[in-house]
Design brief:
The complex is a heterodimer of chains A (613) and B (350).
Chain A (H helix, E strand, L loop, with lengths): L17 E2 L1 E9 L4 H14 L4 E6 L8 E9 L10 E6 L5 H7 E10 L12 E5 L1 H7 L7 H17 L3 H11 L4 H21 L6 E2 L9 E5 H11 L4 E4 L6 H14 L11 E4 L3 H14 L3 E5 L1 H17 L3 E9 L5 E5 L4 H5 L9 E3 L4 H18 L2 E7 H5 L1 E5 L13 E2 L1 H10 L18 E2 L11 E3 L13 H18 L7 E3 L5 E6 L3 H13 L5 E5 L1 E2 L3 H8 L3 E6 L5 H9 L7 E5 L8 H13 L1
Parallel strand pairs in A: 1-8, 2-5, 5-6, 6-7, 10-11, 10-12, 12-13, 13-16, 15-16, 18-19, 22-23, 22-25, 25-26
Antiparallel strand pairs in A: 2-4, 3-4, 9-17, 13-14, 15-24, 21-23
Helix pairs in contact in A: 1-4, 1-5, 3-4, 4-6, 5-6, 7-8, 7-12, 9-10, 16-19
Chain B lengths: L1 E2 L2 E2 L26 H16 L6 E5 L3 H4 L9 E4 L5 H10 L5 E7 H5 L3 H10 L3 E7 L2 E2 L5 E2 L8 E2 L3 E2 L7 H7 L4 E6 L3 H13 L3 E7 L15 H7 E3 L1 E6 L15 E5 L5 E6 L9 H14 L2 E8 L29 H10 L4
Helix pairs in contact in B: 1-7, 6-9
The chains are: A alpha/beta (613), B alpha/beta (350).
Chain lengths: 613, 350
């Protein structure tokens, strides 16, 4: 008989149940196959209608180092990371004693019964789990034992929290694409484990799940898959990429979905090409070559890869070639923390390239928006004939999130100013029989381009990164150089209209909070915390750089502005300062760069401290 | 004669175009530069083959060689990219319309140093295009530094003696499974033109390493990359004749056993008249052996070193539509709303 509470009886106050509002941390060893178990639990909780988010905190390693997965259930719908663990599933003997220290008073620890633990705390509940015994009694082939072992805690947890086993089965079937054999194999262990828990464990902790309706019509996806799918619906025709964490799964998703979504049903031919390049220099070169040729073209990478791509992006900026670059940010400088998240490339990307450059950035703030910006980025890149960098991050890109379902694009595909044979002839008739690739005929700084394969004898022009005139001819003429750079500046100024506008929420406060991307999850929750202390703020989530006029207005109309971001130097605040230097003294940088997603509590505390000054 | 409403002079090729339709801007390279004679032969080869200039796209990297695409085929699209990265731009650009033939021009600095990686990976993928290396052993545009193809012991005014061993671009191409490898000499225009024609007709990556002397910084008579040395030490593997698909092959011009012939993908035939030695250009190891022998014997071996006309190309590895990708209507690019609904359902929709 297992004693489930070896130290002290913890009183459960029946009326004090904590329902659908707690955090579970799974502490495992990297490579031990816990991901299936953890995502199965998350999906089951999601299917119960409970808002849930999962975050994988993992090392740059394939096997052997400690790794954590946190599941947050939030009946209020908050999906940000929380610092405290209510329940810990401690599968890793080497970290278990540290894990115990992180559990909240009244929390619970589930652990394999063969791990010896120092009972340092009597304010938590201990649940030893007979993992070896249950696995021994199941008919599991030795090679699968380690993987299936994780299913023991799935079964025990399901029983102790109240997750119906048929929903667990639904989640497993989804994972194994309805293959009966692995589903049954895993369900057998899960069932036995739940049964064991029912017979042998006494519920002494306050945590329960109950079905609710917190996510009707929502789906589960990670940002990289969403970005890839959005790109496919945006008509991506060419992708070149090179593997790098945390961006690889974006291109891999393209490999996975393109055959299904982009095979012409009549001809059976595929309308989208993917090339795995030899390095990032080649990946961006191929993508820019394809963009030049008139294909909707993209690459995906992260900091170190983007550093390598910089020279090419400068070329595309000056030669005015559309290309979409997904930057799934990780912690730098250098190799940095390759498997941890950050928003540390903002200033770098803005000025990427030598000389006077200026790049367009889009900041998806949710998985759903990764899909949206996936297609939108091509319209912007082709309309403005310039690189567009989509600034995702590891937290958004690699973690699976619940998100509103993907909406079909509400705008037709915009290919921008392209001239085929007949269009060109019309233009020649209108403009003295002359075509100039870089002539600003419409006064918006955006010029017309012909594409390779255009058979009109006047279609061809010579693209170069060297100084060129309106006819793309080589020149070092000082006046022409300056004029062409000023025209590109004008193109950016006038082109802001094509960029997504910020989300602004006004609560009649003189203080505002600003953020970009995934930082919005903890920021919006922090605002909820602060409002309980009667601290109310206006809020702006910026979706694109260069900044819209609305962004500058927001700065003008507030006295104190908190800029919350996941980097050391307050890079978003740096760019806001450059855009509106007279507002510089209003900024309060709320920044952190420890590799983990921000938490609402930390943000709220930092803001409260400042407000109390 | 009227063609397309224009009066023609009678010097039209099979495409109804005159040599003038293949011209480029006047060269700004030095007088006597090997690269200029290569540009002339590119014009001649394209004109004689009757290739429509709009069906060629020119690509180059950075350096003297890479400036030259402006000096030929004004009616072709061109892209002068970054140092050593012509291959990646060409690869992406040519997927836009696979009926357009790629013509890349690079130099020894652009290919054998900074661009070695992209050069070899282009060969590994057998990207269907022509890849010309205008090889002079020296960096001209930065005023005379050793390149990676400069031979050991060479003396330059400011740098002194070159202490490193040279890279042989043809050997590099061969060991990377290139499907067409030739060496030419800017001082031998007739052979060069025929090599260019064969390269333009090859369905796969055609690598042409052309020794192209730099008259300003590197034309010393004892150096591998000079006119004089080349003229004195050139050994031709064969006399190349090029027979286009539509021409009648008059095999009787050649005595039996005196020539080798290779049929290219588009039906053209390259006839290689035997000179003093037997040479089989379909044997990769033989090509490597003869290059090694030339190095040992201090000769400049020229001709078609290797060809595999049936090697699978990069385009063969994709299932591309017949219509050029860059002409596809938006309706062919965006899947339907139904497809998205199905997708949403498949993502564990609640």
């Amino acid at each position: 008989m297992v004693k489930n509470n070896p130290t002290k009886e913890v009183e459960i106050i029946k009326n004090n149940k904590i329902i659908n509002d707690f955090c579970i941390t799974f502490s495992t060893v990297n490579g031990s196959g816990s991901a299936t178990a953890n995502t199965t639990l998350m999906r089951a909780i999601f299917k119960m209608g409970i808002p849930v988010s999962g975050k994988n905190i993992f090392p740059s390693n394939i096997q052997g180092l400690p790794t954590w997965y946190t599941l947050r259930l939030s009946k209020h719908g908050f999906l940000a990371r929380v610092q405290e663990d209510d329940i810990v599933i401690a599968m890793n003997p080497s970290t278990i004693n540290k894990e115990i220290d992180c559990i909240v008073p009244g929390g619970a620890l589930f652990y394999p019964d063969d791990i010896k633990i120092a009972n340092t705390r009597d304010d938590i509940v201990y649940y030893p789990m007979p993992i070896r015994k249950i696995i021994k009694e199941s008919e599991v082939t030795p090679s699968l034992k380690d993987y299936i072992s994780n299913m023991v805690y799935v079964g025990i947890l399901a029983q102790m929290l109240g997750i119906p086993l048929d929903i667990i089965k639904e989640a497993l079937s989804f994972h194994f694409k309805n293959k009966e054999k692995p589903v049954n194999l895993n369900m057998d262990v899960i069932g036995k484990s739940a049964e064991w828990a029912e017979k042998n464990l006494t519920k002494s902790d306050p945590y329960f799940v109950e079905p609710m309706q917190g996510n009707d019509g929502w789906i589960m996806s990670d940002g990289n898959t969403a970005g890839a799918l959005g790109s496919i619906f945006g008509g991506v025709q060419f992708t070149a990429w090179y593997p790098i964490t945390p961006a690889s799964s974006l291109a891999e998703s393209l490999h996975e979905y393109i055959p299904e979504l982009r095979t012409d049903p009549i001809t059976g031919k595929v309308t989208s090409v993917i090339v795995q390049a030899e390095d990032e220099l080649a990946a961006i070169g191929m993508a820019i070559g394809a963009g030049w040729g008139g294909l909707r073209s993209m690459t995906s990478t992260s900091g170190p890869g983007l550093s390598l791509m910089t020279e090419f992006i400068g070329l595309a900026y000056y030669a005015e070639i559309p290309v979409v670059i997904w930057n799934v940010q990780r912690v730098g400088p250098s190799t940095g923390l390759p498997t941890r998240t950050a928003q540390g490339d903002i200033t770098f990307v803005k000025f990427m390239g030598h000389g006077d450059t200026d790049n367009i950035m889009l900041f998806p703030g949710s998985v759903n928006e990764c899909f949206e910006f996936g297609w939108k980025a091509f319209d912007i890149a082709e309309r403005l004939q310039t690189p567009v960098i989509v600034m995702s991050d590891l937290d958004l890109g690699m973690n699976e999130w619940m998100t509103p379902k993907f909406d079909y694009p509400d705008q037709p595909i915009d290919r921008g100013k392209i001239l085929w044979e007949e269009d060109l002839q019309k233009m020649l008739d209108k403009y003295q029989n002359e075509f100039g690739r870089y002539r600003d005929l419409d006064g918006d700084g955006i010029t017309y381009r012909t594409l390779v394969g255009n058979m009109h004898p006047k279609a061809a022009y010579f693209t170069r990164g060297t100084g060129h005139d309106e006819y793309a001819k080589y020149t070092e003429d000082p006046k022409i150089w300056e004029e062409s750079l000023m025209r590109i500046k004008k193109k950016f100024e006038k082109g802001k209209q094509y960029l997504p506008k910020p989300i602004i929420k006004i609560n009649e406060s003189k203080s505002g909070i600003i953020c970009v991307g995934s930082a919005s999850f903890p920021v919006e929750e922090a605002m909820d915390i602060l409002s309980k202390d009667h601290l109310n703020f206006d809020y702006m989530r910026i979706k694109s750089i260069p900044f819209h006029q609305e962004v500058i207005e927001f700065l003008h109309t507030h006295d104190r502005i908190y800029v919350v971001e996941l980097n050391r130097d307050g890079q978003l605040a740096q760019l806001l300062t450059l855009a509106a230097p007279v507002e510089a003294n209003k900024f309060r940088n709320i920044t952190k760069v420890d590799g983990l997603p921000l938490t609402a509590k930390w943000i709220a505390n930092e803001i409260r401290k400042d407000e109390e000054k | 004669m009227m063609v397309n409403g224009e009066i023609k002079t009678g010097n039209e090729n099979s495409a109804g175009l005159t040599r003038a339709d293949y011209r480029g801007a006047p060269s700004t390279l030095c007088q006597g530069c090997g690269h200029n004679s290569i540009s002339s032969q590119i014009v001649a080869a394209c004109y004689e083959l009757g290739i429509v200039p709009e069906k060629i796209a020119k690509f180059s990297g950075i350096g003297c060689s890479s400036k030259s695409p402006t000096y030929f085929l004004n009616r072709s699209f061109g892209f002068n990219g970054l140092h050593g990265r012509m291959p990646s731009i060409a690869l992406g650009g040519l997927f836009a319309d696979i009926t357009v033939k790629g013509l890349g021009v690079s130099g020894d600095g652009d290919t054998a140093s900074i661009g070695m990686g992209q050069f070899k990976h282009l060969a590994r993928r057998n990207m269907p295009m022509v890849y010309i290396v205008e090889n002079n052993g020296v960096y001209g545009l930065t005023k005379g530094q050793f390149s990676a193809t400069a031979e050991e012991g060479l003396l330059l005014k400011r740098q002194g003696i070159n202490t490193y061993l040279p890279v042989d671009i043809c050997m590099e191409a061969l060991v990377t499974n290139a499907s067409f490898v030739a060496r030419g000499f800017a001082g031998d225009p007739k052979q060069l033109k025929n090599l260019l024609k064969a390269a333009l007709s090859h369905n796969g990556l055609a690598i042409l390493d052309i020794i192209s002397p730099c008259v300003t910084f590197h034309n010393k008579e004892n150096s591998y990359h000079s006119y004089l040395w080349g003229k004195e030490h050139e050994i031709k593997l064969h006399d190349i004749e090029f027979v286009q698909a539509r021409d009648e092959i008059t095999i009787e011009d050649f005595e039996p056993g005196s020539s080798k012939e290779v049929s290219l993908h588009d039906g053209t035939v390259v006839l290689m008249k035997k000179l003093d030695k037997d040479y089989d250009p379909t044997n990769r190891y033989e090509a490597l052996r003869i290059l090694e022998e030339a190095e040992r014997e201090n000769t400049l071996i020229t001709g078609l070193l290797f060809v595999d006309p049936n090697a699978k190309t990069l385009f063969d590895r994709y299932s591309l539509p017949d219509e050029p990708l860059n002409r596809l209507e938006p309706s062919k690019l965006r899947p339907s709303a139904d497809a998205l609904e199905k997708l949403n359902q498949s993502l564990f929709m609640k």
